[in-house]
């Protein structure tokens, strides 16, 4: 698989089989991803890979919280600005419409939407998950380094025939994640990432992208 195919075939998969992901594959991917760029080579990411019994226990505990209607953990960072301006508001709305329409969930069916969202904390059935942390003393440039690292991981997973789903949703169950991982206090959970082989029986809608001239300006001589 070449780089272009990896980029264009990568998407947030929300349905995985229980086929195990070999440890050697995960090690190969993460060893190569370590070459992702970061300012002054700080490499500010701290990743935890969870499989088997620990992941099953995490899913169980998260599922219990969902079933009990426990309030979310207080966010340690702002996921989106309080008021998204155009065109970002429209893009987010379009994503929500496409996502829930593919599941046959009506906009006004709040309970069904909540059930669909709850699948996040089962990792959509994936047999492996990655949790990415960053030191809370780091600044915005280092948070952007985290994004480059995660994208590199996801593209390498595609090269291995695997799919993924990055999930900031785990940040609101960060205390449950910490019960399993015991991360140092100085770390902030940025996101989780479900990893595995796609379940082709699960329907999905491929979200579109803005036209090039909407996001890119060429300045030529």
From TrEMBL:
InterPro entries, sorted: Nitroreductase, Nitroreductase-like, Nitroreductase/BluB
Protein keywords: Flavoprotein, FMN, Oxidoreductase
The keyword Oxidoreductase is assigned to this record: yes
CDD domains: PnbA_NfnB-like (cd02136)
Pfam family, one: Nitroreductase
Record has Oxidoreductase as a keyword: yes
Gene3D superfamilies (UniProt xref): NADH Oxidase
Xref: SUPFAM superfamilies: FMN-dependent nitroreductase-like
Nitroreductase domain boundaries: 8-196
Domain of life assignment: Bacteria
Database matches in PANTHER family: IODOTYROSINE DEIODINASE 1 (PTHR23026:SF90), NADPH NITROREDUCTASE (PTHR23026)
Name of the protein: Nitroreductase
């Amino acid at each position: 698989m070449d780089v272009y195919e990896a980029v264009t075939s990568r998407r947030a998969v929300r349905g995985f089989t229980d086929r195990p992901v070999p440890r050697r594959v995960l090690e190969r991917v993460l060893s190569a991803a370590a070459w992702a760029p970061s300012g002054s080579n700080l490499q500010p990411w701290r990743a935890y890979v969870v499989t088997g019994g620990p992941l099953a226990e995490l899913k169980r505990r998260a599922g219990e919280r969902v079933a009990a209607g426990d309030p979310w953990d207080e966010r340690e960072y702002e996921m989106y600005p309080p008021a998204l301006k155009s065109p970002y508001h429209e893009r987010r709305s379009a994503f929500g419409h496409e996502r829930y329409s593919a599941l046959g969930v009506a906009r006004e069916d709040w309970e069904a939407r909540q059930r669909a969202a709850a699948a996040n904390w089962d990792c959509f059935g994936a047999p492996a998950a990655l949790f990415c942390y960053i030191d809370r003393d780091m600044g915005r440039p280092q948070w952007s380094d985290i994004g480059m690292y995660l994208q590199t991981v996801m593209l390498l997973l595609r090269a291995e025939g695997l799919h993924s789903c990055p999930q900031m949703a785990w940040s609101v169950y960060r205390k449950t994640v910490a019960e399993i991982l015991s991360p140092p206090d100085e770390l902030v959970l940025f996101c989780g990432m479900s990893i595995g082989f796609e379940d082709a029986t699960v329907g999905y809608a491929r979200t579109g992208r803005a036209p090039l001239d909407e996001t890119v300006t060429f300045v030529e001589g």
